[in-house]
Fold each of these.
Amino acid sequence: MALRSHYIVVLALLLSETWIEYGNSQDDIDLTKGASFIFGDSLVDAGNNNYLQTLSKADITPNGIDFKASGGTPTGRYTNGRTIGDIVGEELGEPRYALPFLAPNTTGRAILYGVNYASGGGGILNATGSIFVNRLSMDIQVDYFNITRKQIDKLLGASEARDYLHKNSIFSITIGSNDFLNNYLLPVVSMGARISQNPDTFVDDMINHLRTQLTRLYRLDARKFIVGNVGPIGCIPYQKTINQLKENECVSLPNKLAQQYNAKLKDLLQQLNENLPGSTFAYANVYDLVMEVITNYAKYGFSTASKACCGDGGQYAGVIPCGPTSTMCSDRDKHVFWDPYHPSQAANLLIAKQLLDGDQRYISPINLRQLRDL
Ligand SMILES: *[C@@H]1O[C@H](CO)[C@@H](O)[C@H](O)[C@H]1NC(C)=O
Ligand SMILES: *[C@@H]1O[C@H](CO)[C@@H](O)[C@H](O)[C@H]1NC(C)=O
Ligand SMILES: *[C@@H]1O[C@H](CO)[C@@H](O)[C@H](O)[C@H]1NC(C)=O
């Protein structure tokens, strides 16, 4: 018995070595390949929450079952395979996935290929996600980038560091869903906020905070930004299950709030494009993109856009989060949703493709490949 568990520990170490070693040759960093600095929530978390005392965790099976770089073991990603951030980085030719900021080995020249600050449960507002006890909210993610920023200065020297950030680095921000799902719409925790703030005031609060956060990143030499709007959060299996909706229905209040925020986000990014010299802010219309995939799921090769692949409870397996004892579907690529909250790798691939090469419907004023080549 003891021998066997020892063997398992050794095997686990070997597997994690393989994963950490992926593309990580410390000495021959090629600065022309570019970097991704990724901010956001569980949609793009690549393992930060593994290092937090939190109720929001994805380092449990079967998460990551289709993630090749880890051999299918969980990494802390809240999906079966790659996140949108991973896919975009790969497509842009970055030699490795952006490393989680909190991982002990995210040090030295490895950070020059990018760092990931995203955290499951995190939001634009500080109070968002407090039901999970711990998470990195956007203010803290920017504080952490400020630490990375100084490390880059040390590695490259001030002038080359500035150039590298201005020209070869893409800053992606995927945040806002939790401010609604795990703050404003939460019956118990947010009672105060919801009673004292109407939707307009709450959304304005979000936009004002985000303006400050994006401006801080700009002051730290970020220039090429892509900011995702909030997706149709009324259509996720969790919302559909607890509201006992029909297959093709979505909950209207969460979607209305998302659209209200999205309209103001688009204006904000336009203002920042005009007011912050040398910057480009691309607006990623994730809402319309995901809605299109959900509405016409069969056209994209999916068998369902309502039922979670991994989860339990109710008609859409949308109550109990994905974990070792969950029911899991056998055709993971045919589900738009991996779990009650998050898209599958197959859906992430479709979304990433549009952000990279799509037209003004889904990304404006330019797409990611054009942003990279600026
Ligand atoms: C992390 O880095 C240390 C020091 O470079 C190394 O000894 C260790 O094996 C690394 N850990 C992993 C999991 O790669
Ligand atoms: C949010 O929390 C951080 C860290 O605790 C703090 O530095 C920041 O001032 C807070 N922001 C606001 C708007 O309260
Ligand atoms: C970055 O950190 C320094 C302190 O080390 C602070 O003076 C500066 O204001 C910070 N910058 C931003 C944009 O937060």
Amino acid sequence: MVKERKGMKLILLGSGDANRVPSLGCRCENCEKARRDDKLRRSCSSLLIIKNGKEILFDIGPDIREQLIREEINNIDAVFLTHQDSDHFFGIEYLRCLKYPLKPQAGKTTPIFAPSDAIDRVQEVFFYMIENREISVKRIKPGERTNIQGLSIISFPVSHRSYCSTFGYIIQEGNKKAVYLPDVKSLSKSKSILECKIPEIIRNPDLIFIDANGDEPSDSHISWKEAVRFGKKIKADKIILIHLSHAANPKVNDDQVIIGFDGYSKEL
Ligand SMILES: [Zn+2]
Ligand SMILES: [Zn+2]
């Protein structure tokens, strides 16, 4: 019997948005710099949590193949999706490679947990993987708690797009807590992220991985400045800025804030 170990390892597989950095065809300074220096590149945002030797993934964009090869991960036990935008779920296709004989995951069905309308999209696009029992789908409700590998994963609804529901996730083990919130405009429909009511359960995390898409807010994303202010408001020990676009130029001089990068990792 495998003895249960306390603690979890978090690996930020990707820190960019759907267009990534460099963005195709873009000649801006950030994109040009990233063409010359691999360390400045950003792939689609995704967070991997390793707990008791099991791998739980939050969002699986089209870059997942390169991300898992880079981190030498050969197994995924469960996937949680925040929403149905392509940069958060198109990588489900690559889970197939883990299912061939003689691989750790061979023969196993990987559950995909997501808001109900995102599950509809997964069923539409990856119906053949469901038929082959490579994946199964689990609809989760806002506020629902899922217990998996000694972790408690709680969804919370946020406003992001008008056409789909979006969740953030709280990942808890005992008194340790991380929040994953890659795409957010607010936690309410009528008030800004800095004015809305914040559920108690989100407060005081060890880490928050949070949307910092641009220098200014857009229709569907907050700015990196709002991300920092929100992280401080909920009293996060560390605020990790993620889902950065090529146009984001966060300037921070604060030990509490980390500009996320592909491959950032932390043990809790
Ligand atoms: Zn996104
Ligand atoms: Zn650019």
